[in-house]
TrEMBL record:
Record key words, sorted: DNA-binding
Protein name per the record: DNA-binding transcriptional MerR regulator
Pfam families: HEAT_2, MerR_1
Gene Ontology molecular-function annotations: DNA binding
Organism from which the protein derives: Cellulomonas iranensis
InterPro entries: ARM-like (IPR011989), ARM-type_fold (IPR016024), DNA-bd_dom_put_sf (IPR009061), MerR-type_HTH_dom (IPR000551), MerR_fam (IPR047057), PBS_lyase_HEAT (IPR004155)
Highest taxon of source: Bacteria
PANTHER family, A to Z: HTH MERR-TYPE DOMAIN-CONTAINING PROTEIN, REDOX-CYCLING DRUG-SENSING TRANSCRIPTIONAL ACTIVATOR SOXR
Positions of the HTH merR-type domain: 1-69
Source lineage: Bacteria, Bacillati, Actinomycetota, Actinomycetes, Micrococcales
Length: 334
């Protein structure tokens, strides 16, 4: 086969075939009387192997070694290619995120784009935590449309001081920040979901409230707890049963009791709280009953007092002492 036929059958250009010949990667078997390259079936098979290896990302020198060196270890090279591909994908994902954040800022002119890009650089991981904190504290005064970029930076922030500044900024740019935070609650990364739910708990926005309610059943216990505490403080009756569950479980039980106290300001909800607490106390072990007795300090009404009187006679002394102390506080108004 002459070079034109090989190019047609393989899809490799004649120019590239000549280059392969010059570097000794795919030399033709022979030459015609007129001096033209002639390729045999074995040459064509080698060419196809070359193209297959190149499609994996191997350089021409690596392809030559793979085909000619008996000691060549393909696993090592493939591992390196996998790492390089993942790095490229991470860079592309980072670029895509940055473009999405720029677009979320609703740019109408190139100065808007450059402003958002400058903010993203100021909040980037290459800056010190103190610099990121300063950038967050000074951004909202410049343009609240940058809430999307602030929210994205918050979801990636490890430093507690910088994260606190970013949450402060996100609350003040909530209109643009909330969609990013709500979307993060569907993320596979529990850490990002935790950061999102903490930020949403501080935002007074209908979409934030709805997203927090959806997070009551999040698979991560910390996300669930943060969402439930925020929902209870906002008077969401749906949080009653799982908040009682937090008290029984001993996870954030003091904060859960405070949230139940907010909910108990509504007489209708108060009756539900008392009923659920009584049901839980009937099945709980002594440490849980003691926490329940303590939580009832936050719940007014005759139903809570009657339950405390029963717990004051509990056979477990710590439970009885806690219930007695709470009853005394209720009588004295303490």
């Amino acid at each position: 086969m002459l070079i034109g036929e090989v190019a047609a059958r393989s899809g490799v250009s004649a120019r590239m075939l000549r280059h392969y010949d010059r570097i000794g990667l795919v030399p033709p078997t022979g030459r015609s009387r007129a001096g033209y390259r002639e390729y045999g079936d074995a040459d064509l098979r080698r060419l196809l192997h070359v193209e297959g290896l190149r499609s994996l990302g191997l350089s021409l020198s690596e392809v030559a070694r793979a085909l000619d060196d008996p000691g060549f270890d393909p696993a090592v090279v493939v591992d390196g290619l996998v790492a390089a591909a993942r790095e490229r994908r991470a860079r592309e994902d980072e670029l895509l995120d940055r473009l999405a954040q720029v677009r979320a800022g609703a740019p109408t002119a190139w100065p808007d784009v450059l402003r958002t890009v400058g903010l993203l650089r100021a909040l980037g991981p290459g800056r010190t935590p103190a610099a990121r904190q300063r950038a967050a504290l000074t951004t909202v005064a410049a343009d609240p449309r940058d809430g999307a970029a602030l929210a994205a930076a918050l979801l990636a922030e490890d430093d507690p001081n910088a994260a606190g500044a970013l949450r402060w900024a996100v609350v003040r740019a909530a209109a643009a920040a909330v969609p990013v935070l709500v979307a993060a609650l569907a993320d596979d990364d529990a850490v990002r979901r935790r950061r999102a739910v903490v930020a949403l708990a501080d935002v007074d926005d209908p979409d934030a409230v709805a997203a927090l309610a959806d997070a009551y059943v999040d698979p991560d216990p910390e996300v669930r707890a943060r969402a439930l505490l925020a929902g209870g403080r906002r008077g969401d009756r749906r949080a009653v049963a799982p908040l009682v569950g937090l008290v029984v479980e001993g996870r954030d039980d003091v904060e859960a009791a405070e949230a139940l106290g907010v909910l108990a300001e509504d007489p209708g909800v108060r009756a539900e709280i008392t009923r659920r607490v009584a049901d839980a106390a009937a099945l709980a072990d002594p440490p849980a009953r003691q926490r329940i007795a303590g939580a009832l300090a936050e719940v007014p009404g005759d139903g809570a007092r009657a339950l405390l009187e029963r717990l004051a006679a509990d056979p477990a002394r710590p439970v009885a002492l806690t219930a007695t102390a709470v009853l005394r506080l209720r009588r004295t108004g303490g």
